[in-house]
Amino acid sequence: MKKFLIIFILVVSGCGVSFKSGSLKDRDFPDQVLSEFKYISSDNSGNKEWELRASLAKSYNQKNEIILENLSITFFHSDGRIKSFLSANKGYINTQNMNVYAEGNVKIFSEGKALLETKKIYWDNNLKRFYSESNEIVTLWRNNSYVKGYNLIADVELKEIRMDYIHSEVRETN
Questions:
Q1: Which of 53, 56, 155, 172 lies 20 to 30 Å from 66, alpha-carbon distance?
Q2: How far is Cα 39 from Cα 48, in angstroms, rounded to an integer?
């Protein structure tokens, strides 16, 4: 047995194999991995405000975040009607304040038939507003016109919108 142990140590040290130290808490493993994830946010009266779905969710308790893949968020009026719908390739939720970050082919459709397109968007759950990064272009389509700009701030229904450095175009219909 002693001979086996010595040979094992020599083989391991000779092959350059090393073992990492540290606890599992220090490693970047999710606490939970969930498929077909669904989260519902409600107001103080119990009315559903928004519903988030993702094909995959990885929960990191110490970081207070949930990483999402293929996500969508549906925002609701207090009577249950849909205000708007967001879809994106990936994102995350901050579990302390329930703010959401979405990126990759982000599209937001409003009940007023507006479409917002960008690469990255933030949802501030406390202020109930969307925000874009200052260097990310945002395009808002409504009817036959569009507006492109930066530094977006918008309400959930895409009715109140502020952008900087805008360019717009109106197209005539035949």
A1: 155
A2: 11
